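Dear colleagues,

For the upcoming journal club I promised to circulate an example of a predicted protein-ligand complex. I picked one with flavin-adenine dinucleotide because it came up in last month's discussion. The inputs are reproduced below in full, followed by the predicted structure.
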Amino acid sequence: SVAICWFRRDLRLNDHAALYHALRSGLPVLPLFIFDTTILSRLEDKADRRVDMIHQVVGGLQEQLRTLGSDMLVAHGTPEEVFRHLLQEYNVAAVYANRDYEPAAIERDNTIAAICTAAGIEYHNSKDQVIFEPQEILKDDGTPYTVYTPYSKRWLARLNPFFLKAYPVEQYFSALLQFRDKQLPSLQQLGFRKTDFTYKAPELPHQVIARYGETRDFPAVEGTSHLAPHLRFGTISIRQLAAFAQKKNLVYLKELAWREFFMSILFHFPRVEQHPFKQAYAGIKWRNSEAEFDAWRKGQTGYPMVDAGMRELNTTGTMHNRVRMVVASFLTKHLLINWQWGEAYFAKKLMDFDLSANNGNWQWAAGCGCDSAPYFRVFNPSEQVKKFDPDLKYIRKWVPELDSLSYPQPIVEHSFARDRALKAYKEALNNQ
Ligand code: FAD
């Protein structure tokens, strides 16, 4: 009999909780990855960099495992179909996976756990993608935090070497099942196309970390770690990264706490997936102009930082955090377009798309989330340029026609838009 180790957003062969426990179970371990058709069928753009990234990473894991005489079994289907099939094909005694905290993932895992239990198979799951799970950082009265600062204080206070210890999976590789799977399905077979994305293995951010606090807000500078997609798919271990950050830079470490804060919010308040965290803002009368949304999406608003950001996103699948805040504020406040439109657009495009971080940050920008900036704080996009891209280096890269006649006039005048937004927000609060 075998133990299956089911890889999901933990695509690496080092410091891996589920793999460690599987390898130490005394059973030969069969590594499994499923290209999940439930998720893939929802992706409209069939040239999706994230699918391309996963495809390249899984191919790499197969190669690594083959040098050890083992392999990664790569399946294509719904997890339920795949497991029902595998349970017939192999004598499976146990399944090991790492926990995931998104509502849809929890439901998926419960389904598979139930199938296993019904068949007399052990289903084990472990903490792996976070330092602290949503239930581990709670207020004294046992309720979840809804404000980041006290959450992060407790998060930092609890951090000790125990939580950062790596799982030494390499020592137990001899327990991997010796087998050879068929060829990796091609992107075409999965219904996707190749993109311009080439996967590079992550590195600890030695270069940026020393100056992170000073440079992270300037999009023209190499000031951030670019590790978000790796954290999303688990190609880097959060324990390894947090241990490094703890030694080097507290500001960076606190960013990792933001990630877990929003995961905790989504876990404890799953309604935020569809609704504002603060109910009072449910009644905002959005203008929701399709034409203006289109101009925003394409980077044609006449506000250079907004346009640069959206063009960067459309071209590369990423955008600097400072610029994300500016474009999100602009869409929701200046154009009075529902934050959920922006959230959905980012979800389609971002390499590092993560439901909890995207939702939490969009709600923050719209002023309706937990721990939100007060609604009356409206970013002035031109002031943001002066502060964070004073030489226009970032902007000129993405908006080369900035000084020419072909560049559009501002889609809306700043102070007019600001007053209009404040009025709409105030009205919603008064009418609640
Ligand atoms: P670094 O500055 O190097 O930070 C290190 C890590 O800390 C990041 O990789 C990320 O895991 C975490 N982190 C940093 N800032 C935040 C934050 N505000 N919220 C949560 N985690 C954070 N981040 C995502 O990972 N996925 C998203 O879908 C996402 N959507 C966003 C939408 C909006 C409107 C905004 C304003 C921010 C969003 N962010 C999202 C947060 C942030 O912009 C990115 O995490 C960051 O830009 C990624 O680049 P980096 O890895 O170089 O970050």
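Two points we might discuss: Residues 250-268 form the longest helix (19 residues). The beta strands are 2-7, 29-36, 73-77, 92-98, 122-126.

See you all on Thursday,
B. R.
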